[in-house]
Amino acid sequence: MPHSTHVTLAQVAAAAGVSIATASRAINGSTRKVSEDIRQRVAQTAEELGYLPNLSAQTVVKGAAPVVAVLVSDIADPYFSSISAGVMAGAREAGLMVTMATSERRSEDELEMIRTFRAQRPRAIIVVGSRQEPDERTAEIENQLQTYRDSGGHVVLISQGPSPFDLVEIQNYDGAKQLAHALVDRGGRSFGIAAGRRSLRTNVDRIAGFTDGLAERGLSLADGAIAEAPFTRDGGFTAMTELLGRREELQLDTVFATSDLMAFGAATAMRSAGVIPGQDISLAGFDNIALAEDVTPALTTVDVPLEEAGYRAVKLALAEDPAPESLQLGTSVILRGSTPQR
Amino acid sequence: MPHSTHVTLAQVAAAAGVSIATASRAINGSTRKVSEDIRQRVAQTAEELGYLPNLSAQTVVKGAAPVVAVLVSDIADPYFSSISAGVMAGAREAGLMVTMATSERRSEDELEMIRTFRAQRPRAIIVVGSRQEPDERTAEIENQLQTYRDSGGHVVLISQGPSPFDLVEIQNYDGAKQLAHALVDRGGRSFGIAAGRRSLRTNVDRIAGFTDGLAERGLSLADGAIAEAPFTRDGGFTAMTELLGRREELQLDTVFATSDLMAFGAATAMRSAGVIPGQDISLAGFDNIALAEDVTPALTTVDVPLEEAGYRAVKLALAEDPAPESLQLGTSVILRGSTPQR
DNA sequence: AGCCTAAAGGAAAACGTTTACCCTATGCAA
DNA sequence: TTGCATAGGGTAAACGTTTTCCTTTAGGCT
In chain B, which ranges are E strands? Predict the structure, then answer.
């Protein structure tokens, strides 16, 4: 039995002895004015009856829902949840709701979720960094986003340019390069990288930045010094285990994990192999998630303003400017105990 | 310019040469059948035109949105984001979207968000563990949820009974009690608790369970052995610092932090005071969040099936059974290096 | 007094769906 | 042949809003 007990605007209007039109204007405002006494009377009856406007009905006539939709890979991952926190803060400021979906890192789900988003007519769609290498499915996704934007929606991609959409970019390349410099300064000479899949741009950029940073210091990576695995905590464990298998031949003294989460897994992998992170082998991550300073040794990493990225994405989406914009968010190296001077 | 380029059902119907009713039945099914050839033709034109049903319009007539709404305190907190992950999994199985809001642990915001939720006519509202001590505002919140349920909605509270609503409860009391036993078995004698605010039931239960567990072993807490602070990582730091100030008088050998996050903060507080966690003072947490095993020393804690809690909450909300149900999720102690045998 | 304008209320048309109801053709039993 | 059920199409009413007009009233000018 739907439509059961919801109080409708018509009921409020009747109870207040005015027309529906007037009630609407009194409650949700409009260009048109309503005399103060009537406005008050309507507001009061609405309050008494416990009236709540039906958002869907408003959306149908207005053509857009007061909603920003966010697509992330995995909300349990602190990287994404931090960004989400920023999105929610921005949405709240703008008086919008947030609908969220996870793609579980599968592009078929990503496509499906974006179609569902579109059906909701949200004010903006924000897609967070799960961009894969282009294939026919990502093309279709881009297509969906295009037509969504053509129909008046706003699209912002976080950490995955280049693209025709608004971008909030994180300086992965620069950050990784600076990290490389810092690690060399700390005495690192033989490096390994515990990397997430290179199908994700984020990883590609971090690897490239790091490699180039080493090159600028006259160093290079040995063959097999990059171990690739899923971009998760467990992936870090796997990749590190693989690197440790080549420890002698690589003469590993420092490992860069392309995310803090991977670094955590890597540290645990080291310990289970009897290697002490920060002592036997230096370890650095990327992202500076909340817990990076709480582990032992505290993790050297690159600070990324994740929450700000989410926040700015909303602002960008809601800005007037029709020209596609790209926002660069700076990163900064944070040296901690996991990479002592050698 | 709203209503701009969205393809409508009427357009599809026209293009396919059928009535709107038939198009509707062909695309979204119903009790009524549609001949196979027409169904195909409509489906194909819809595809060609890129038709997407307007969810809001459907919601208006159906009376409920295909949505489950989730209210959490802070999505960046791994406790809440893990639960959210479970909710999203459950929602996806049921073919529902998820709209999420954060209360930032303020009950005024909580009230506001719940009203906004209601305006959306979601199929279910799930509120996660931010329940405070009863006051006039929480009463109003309960009120809102009541009338929401009366109008056909489903409400599930996670980790915050007792209440007239469906409940997914986490055995905080039992888990904490078992943890106390285990810590005594490991040789702990003088305990401290770094606790979150007792305005949250979760904390009350965990403290009570732990205290009672100690009592069952003939031990009791000294005066001032409970330090209360915000239920966050920083709160853990604060509470631990406070406990360390009374270290001598308390003869502290073991500290229980009422969440893993607090435990992380507590560990860092120890180290900044020159105390080595797990060696000088044993440390245990609660929740078993993903990173608990990656810190050093690995954190002894109580495993809580967070993701399952979220998942089950959705199932519970969507179940037929009208009688309020309460689901108990078991916990289990996980002993790790932070609480060595003494 | 007469006229015009502005202010503010109401009636009704939209918005994009679903669904109750109506209509026609077809098949089948008597 | 008649009667009748049924399958499957269409028309139009609903859902709860906003907004476009239309209408009335009041007030200010000349």
Answer: 65-72, 97-102, 122-128, 154-158, 166-170, 191-196, 226-229, 254-257, 282-284, 301-303, 326-329, 332-334
Residue of least CA–C1' distance to D18: A61
pLDDT at A308 over 60: yes
- Domain limits at B221? 172-304
CB atoms within 10 A of CB B318: 17
Rounded to 10°, the helix B36-49/B9-16 angle is: 120
**Looking at residue B199, what is its pLDDT?**
85
Q: Is B291's CB within 8 Å of A293's CB?
A: no
Please, which pLDDT band fits residue A96 given cuts at 50, 70 and 90? very high
In a shared domain, residues B14 and B95:
no
Do B271 and B204 share a structural domain?
Answer: yes
Q: With an 8 Å Cβ cutoff, are A119 and B53 in contact?
A: yes
Q: What confidence score (pLDDT) does residue B162 get?
A: 78
Interatomic distance B35 CA / C28 C1' (Å): 21
For testing the chain B interface, which of A1, A11, A56 should be mutated: the one with the most B CBs within 10 Å? Answer: A56
Q: What is the pLDDT of residue A133?
A: 67
Which residue in the set A76, A120, A294 is minimally distant from B82, CB to CB? A76
> Do the Cβ atoms of A26 and A35 come closer than 8 Å?
no
What pLDDT does residue B133 have? 67
